[in-house]
Amino acid sequence: MNKLDNLPKKKILSLFMTCGFPSLSQSKKIFQEMLSHKPNIIEFGLPFSDPMADGPIIQESSKIALKSKLSTKHSLNLIKSLKKGSGNTAFVIMCYLNTIQKFGVKKFTNEIKSFVDGIIIVDLPFEEEASIKKILDKNNIHLIKLISPMTNKKRSEKLLKDAKGFVYYISATGITGSNKLDYSEINKNVSLLKKQTKTPVLVGFGIKSRKDALAISNKTKADGIIIGSALIKKYFEKNMNFKKYLSSLNKFIKQVKI
User: Fold this and answer.
1) Burial class (CB in 10 A: 0-12, 13-18, 19+), 6
2) Which of 75, 94, 153, 215 could form a cystine bridge with 19, CB 3.0-4.6 A?
3) Whether the model pTM is above 0.85
4) What separation in angstroms does the CA of 73 have from each of 7, 51, 98, 226?
5) Is the pLDDT of residue 125 over 60?
6) For 25, phi and psi rounded to 5 degrees?
7) End-to-end Cα spacing for the chain
8) Where in the sequence numbering do the catalytic residues fall?
9) All domains of the chain, ordered by start, with CATH?
10) Between 71 and 51, where is the model more confident?
């Protein structure tokens, strides 16, 4: 069974966090804290040396994780160790193509098939996804599609033809954690996507507060939200005091879970 096939109709909450940040043992405690709030989805970011779509906050978290010699295998073992207490929360990996290719596509898929429901490969072009998608489909792992404001209708129809799990709508052009949200523009674009697919559409990039979460829920037809940079930023705001960070994280997730 793929947990992404049983998402609620509305108010879906997906939380992103970089694996191995700020250390492998602390990372597990962070994910356990996140799981205690029973989000619908947790996105596990695999640290990468050149994360072109990530803003400075997620880049810094990757840099810190990689400094401790974190490997892809370490990250996968961490995710696997959290599966037992995951309840109905779906597990999604977010990574770059090079990470999978270096590990080996078939080997990577075999490693994750028992505990991962979906994968977002940030830099995998639609035109080159067929061979990877075939392997993922065979193992009931959904390849999550990314749609940006720059994606025209003809291309989005192609992308969404066989969409599974959810659609990741990038709320603004640029990098993660950037730009002010334009709710009317988001609603217009999300409404068009929802005419093209029955797969839930989640909005990510730039959601930083309860106010943003409520606005996406009340002012747009989006089915849910994705929060990443705002969760990581709390660590730096608390001057890297881990105990204070966990407390801050707990409070913040409660606020955005609407």
Assistant:
1) exposed
2) 75
3) yes
4) 28, 18, 14, 25
5) yes
6) -70, -40
7) 27
8) 43, 54
9) 13-253 (3.20.20.70)
10) 71
